[in-house]
Each structure stands twice: as structure tokens, then as C-alpha cells.
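// run 5 | inverse folding | seed 20
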């Protein structure tokens, strides 16, 4: 049974279509049969961040930060202070002698940074009149520091005091930051990854030193993530996936996601496909697998074997914007087409024809030469290739789904260009919980 809790006429139209699509044994099984539309924003909602087990914060182009209870769907707080769109948001654990409190750091196009208390809604700290807007944030909890990246790289302490900075690192600015071992950080800017080291010299003044520039990508880097304690990965606009050693910053594997070998260059140019269909828009990892969103497709890469485990050339009708590995066999993705889809990695049927290596043209080890010619293609051994099977299709948004946050058995929260959030729940689990509450209340009241 589907239980729709509707919030707007636009959402209702899309949700009614979803209910029709989910009926029938041939459709993928979808456990998220109960949903609630959350309204509060009046522009595109681009960001979601989990605060604790039952709260999340949303932010977007209206400059608002809203705090939600993911159990009830209640809007708890409105954090007002930014005059323009939010460009980055993250959680930050502030520690003192007695307690540790989770706070929120936000950056905005109004060239300000703010520290918020999500329990009270108060803006605790703010930094205004920056030289430029901040594009990304990185918290170094072990050092009680945080970094902001944009046209300059800045290091701040938990009291919002500037410790050191690197001005104008590149023309395009920093688009992503990750933490590396030995007090190092990696910053993605244009086609390069720059490694910095944080040190405290004898005069006790924090110092940010550039250690190395990794210039192996041939186009703009679009994604940069940690894989595990020993590796990180980056993805570029032309479909390059590079796996790096996190200690010595050498290339461990290079994977170029190419067009089908049967297509000629002229067919690619004259076709209706968008150039972005090769671009890696998003990467995520659970330490053993890397999931890449490449155009409208999904590609699962094994860190252990350095090979492609499974892929789906067309997983959505438009570009995939965000992904997550729920386990070693289940994953989830969302797209510009307004859908959220759940997938399972399954073995290929025995009767299936041999799968083509498809887009995966080469695999090399060691640093590639930036000035060398195009690498020669090497067909991968696909004997262990698996398939991505659609197991759930969540259709509720009327605009592009920007991202989502999973609360595991407590549900899933999605945000979109339609100004809405949707809280998706497991219908059977919610029905069971309601039955338990009813029986408890009957017992307290002495029965019917």
C-alpha cells in the first residue's frame, strides 16, 4: 500500500505518476513507499548535511539554512543571515574542556563565512568582506582546524581566527579539498591537484607549504575524494579516473572512460549526445569500491583489483549528479531528470552474451606523461564483470535532484531545483512502528 503525504500541486502530479509506475510485479521493488514533502525554501536547494541521527540541514540559492527533524519531517529552525546563495556547508565539532558540540559552517556568494549553533539557531561567528566567495570547506577535526577554498586557500581555527593562507592559487580557484595523512591536504584546481602540508614551526605560527603539483589530468578536475587511509581518487571532465597513493602521491591506477570502440570520431561529433556525457560529475567510495557518475551512466571500480567491476552506460535520462554506495552490493544515484534510483550489483546471467569492455579503454600503472600522445587502448578482461540491476525508482521531484542524505533504516532525504525536500521512508517499517505505538497506547489505557 502506498501512503503519499503531498505538499504541492507540482509534487502531487509527479508523485501520482510514481504511484502508477510502482504498481505491478514487473516493476523494480521499492521499499520507500511512504514519503513526506518538506517545504521551506523558495529557491533551488543544493546542499544537505547530516547533523546527527535524526537531524539534517538544507541550504541553497535563497541563502537560507533550514534544520529538519528527519523522524517527523518538522522544520526545527531557520538560520537567516546570508544575503546570497549558499556555496558550501559542513559540520564542525567544537570542543571545550567539558563538551563537544556539532556546529554548522556555511559559505555564501555574499563573501562571508558563518558558524551556526543548530540547537538554538544562533549565528555564533561570522567573517565578512572576504576577497572572493568560498567554493569548498574542509574540517580537520584532529587538529581543530578548518579550511576554506576558492580563489585563495585559508586555514582557520575553531574561533574563526585566520591562521595562514595561500592567495590566488589558480585562475579558476579551488573546487575541492580533502585531508591526507601526515598533516597534508589536497586541493583540486583546474587540471591540477596541489598537495599542501600544515606545519607548526618553532615560533608556533601555523604554516601552509606547497609540497607537490600533480598534473596528470588532461582536463578540468570535477571530483576529488578520499578512498581509504592509503588512497585518494580524482575524476576529470573527459572521463579520466586516477587512483593516487595518499602517502607519496604517485599514481596507482589510471582509467580512461571512453566512447564505445565501434563509434567513430565523426559519429561522436555529429551525434546529439552532449559533451558532458563523458564527464565525471561525482565520485564516492566505501574504501573497497569507487562509484563514478559519468554523464548519465554509473561505473563501479574495484580498488583491490584495479578493474571495472560493473557499469551501466545509461542509468538515468540525464546527467547523474550525486551517488552513494550503501554497501558492497547496493548503491543509489540521483539525476537532472528528477529521479532517484537504487541499484544492486549482480552477477551476469549465465546465458548472457559476453559483455563488451565498452568505455574502458586503458589501464596503466605509474605516472603518465602529460606531453605523450593518446594512450594505446587495451581491452580489459571482463570475465568477472557484473551488472547493475535497478531495484528501486523514486519519482517525486519535478526538478533536478541535487543530492541526498541517507539515514539508513530511518529514511532518505533528497533536495531539488523544485525548491523542495522529500523525506522517503520504508513503508512497511513505518507501518510496523505505528502499530507498536498503537498497541502501547492501548495497553496504557487499559485496552479498547
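// decoded
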Amino acid at each position: 500500500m502506498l501512503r503519499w503525504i503531498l505538499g504541492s500541486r507540482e509534487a502531487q502530479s509527479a508523485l501520482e505518476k510514481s504511484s502508477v509506475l510502482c504498481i505491478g510485479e514487473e516493476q523494480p521493488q521499492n521499499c520507500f513507499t511512504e514519503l513526506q514533502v518538506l517545504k521551506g525554501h523558495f529557491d533551488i536547494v543544493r546542499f544537505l548535511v547530516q547533523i546527527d541521527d535524526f537531524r539534517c540541514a538544507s541550504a541553497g540559492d535563497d541563502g537560507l539554512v533550514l534544520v529538519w527533524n528527519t523522524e517527523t519531517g518538522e522544520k526545527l529552525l531557520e538560520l537567516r543571515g546570508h544575503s546570497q546563495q549558499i556555496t558550501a556547508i559542513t559540520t564542525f565539532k567544537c570542543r571545550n574542556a567539558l563538551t563537544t558540540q556539532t556546529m554548522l559552517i556555511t559559505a555564501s556568494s555574499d563573501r562571508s563565512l558563518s558558524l551556526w549553533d543548530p540547537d538554538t539557531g544562533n549565528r555564533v561567528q561570522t567573517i565578512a568582506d572576504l576577497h572572493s566567495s568560498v567554493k569548498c570547506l574542509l574540517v580537520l577535526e584532529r587538529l581543530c582546524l578548518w579550511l576554506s577554498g576558492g580563489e585563495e586557500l585559508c586555514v582557520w581555527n575553531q574561533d574563526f581566527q585566520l591562521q595562514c593562507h595561500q592567495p590566488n592559487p589558480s585562475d579558476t580557484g579551488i573546487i575541492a579539498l580533502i585531508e591526507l595523512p601526515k598533516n597534508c591536504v589536497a586541493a583540486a584546481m583546474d587540471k591540477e591537484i596541489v598537495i599542501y602540508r600544515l606545519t607548526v614551526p618553532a615560533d608556533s605560527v601555523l604554516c601552509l607549504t606547497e609540497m607537490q603539483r600533480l598534473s596528470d589530468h588532461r582536463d578540468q578536475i570535477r571530483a576529488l575524494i578520499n578512498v581509504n587511509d592509503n588512497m585518494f581518487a580524482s575524476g576529470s571532465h573527459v572521463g579520466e579516473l586516477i587512483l593516487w597513493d595518499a602517502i607519496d602521491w604517485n599514481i596507482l591506477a589510471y582509467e580512461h572512460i571512453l566512447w564505445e570502440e565501434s563509434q567513430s570520431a565523426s559519429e561522436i561529433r555529429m551525434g546529439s549526445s552532449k559533451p558532458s556525457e563523458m564527464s565525471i560529475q561525482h565520485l564516492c567510495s566505501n574504501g573497497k569500491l569507487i562509484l563514478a557518475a559519468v554523464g548519465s551512466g554509473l561505473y563501479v571500480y574495484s580498488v583491490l583489483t584495479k578493474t571495472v567491476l560493473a557499469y551501466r552506460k545509461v542509468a538515468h535520462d540525464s546527467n547523474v549528479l550525486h551517488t552513494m554506495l550503501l554497501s558492497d552490493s547496493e548503491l543509489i544515484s540521483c539525476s537532472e531528470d528528477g529521479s532517484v534510483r537504487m541499484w544492486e550489483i549482480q552477477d551476469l546471467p549465465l546465458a548472457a552474451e559476453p559483455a563488451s569492455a565498452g568505455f574502458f579503454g586503458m589501464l596503466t600503472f605509474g605516472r603518465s606523461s602529460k606531453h605523450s600522445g593518446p594512450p594505446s587502448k587495451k581491452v580489459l578482461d571482463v570475465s568477472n564483470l557484473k551488472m547493475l540491476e535497478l531495484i528501486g525508482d523514486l519519482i517525486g521531484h519535478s526538478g533536478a535532484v541535487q543530492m541526498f542524505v541517507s539515514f539508513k533504516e530511518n529514511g532518505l532525504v533528497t533536495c531539488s531545483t523544485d525548491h523542495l525536500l522529500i523525506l522517503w521512508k520504508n513503508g512497511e517499517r513505518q507501518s510496523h512502528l505505528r502499530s507498536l505505538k498503537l498497541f502501547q497506547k492501548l495497553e496504557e489505557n487499559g485496552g479498547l
